[in-house]
C-alpha cells in the first residue's frame, strides 16, 4: 500500500529553494541545513538536494475546485502569484483547472483539479 510519493529535486541554492517551498506549502522542512530539505505535504515527500539541475514538472491533484480556489488565495496571501490555467481534455470528457508555480531552478509545480465536462 502506498502512503506517500517521494520526489527528489536537485537545486542550485538550497536555502533559496527551501524558502520557496516553505512559502508554497506553508510547512517547515525537515533536514540538515546546508545538506538537504524534506517537505512532507499532501501525500508528497519532496526532497531538495544541491546538484545538477534538470527542471521537471510535477503536480498535486486536489479533491475539489473549492480546494483549488482556497489554495490560490493562500498562495497569493503568502506573496506568490500562481498562473491559472484551464485545459479541456475532450478524449477524457474532463476539464482541468490548474495553478502553476515555477521555482527558482525552473521546476514547475502544479496544483490541479479535474472535473467532468
Q: What key attributes describe this structure?
A:
2,3-Dihydroxybiphenyl 1,2-Dioxygenase, domain 1; alpha/beta; 117 residues; four-stranded mixed beta sheet; globular; 45% strand
CATH superfamily: 2,3-Dihydroxybiphenyl 1,2-Dioxygenase, domain 1
- The counted number of beta strands is 8
What is the overall shape?
globular
Radius of gyration: 15 Å
* Helix/strand order: EHEEEEHEEE
Separation of termini? 31 Å
CATH classification, class level: Alpha Beta
Architecture per CATH nomenclature, i.e. the level-2 architecture: Roll
Q: Give the amount of beta strand, in percent.
A: over 45%
Description:
This protein has 117 residues and is of the alpha/beta class. The chain has one domain (5-116): 2,3-Dihydroxybiphenyl 1,2-Dioxygenase, domain 1. It has two helices and eight strands, in the order E-H-E-E-E-E-H-E-E-E. The strands form two sheets. It has a four-stranded mixed beta sheet with strand order 1-4-3-2, with helices on one face. Strand 7 and strand 8 (108-116) form a beta hairpin. The protein is globular and about 45 Å long. The protein starts with a strand and ends with a strand. The relative contact order is 0.22. The model has no long low-confidence stretch (mean pLDDT 94).
Amino acid at each position: 500500500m502506498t502512503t506517500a510519493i517521494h520526489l527528489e529535486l536537485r537545486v542550485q541554492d538550497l536555502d533559496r529553494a527551501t524558502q520557496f517551498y516553505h512559502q508554497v506549502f506553508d510547512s517547515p522542512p525537515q533536514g540538515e541545513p546546508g545538506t538537504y530539505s524534506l517537505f512532507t505535504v499532501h501525500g508528497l515527500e519532496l526532497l531538495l538536494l544541491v546538484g545538477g539541475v534538470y527542471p521537471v514538472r510535477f503536480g498535486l491533484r486536489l479533491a475539489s475546485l473549492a480546494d483549488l480556489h482556497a489554495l490560490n488565495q493562500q498562495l497569493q496571501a503568502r506573496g506568490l502569484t500562481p498562473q491559472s490555467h484551464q485545459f479541456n481534455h475532450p478524449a477524457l470528457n474532463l476539464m482541468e483547472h490548474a495553478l502553476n508555480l515555477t521555482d527558482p531552478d525552473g521546476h514547475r509545480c502544479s496544483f490541479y483539479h479535474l472535473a467532468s465536462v
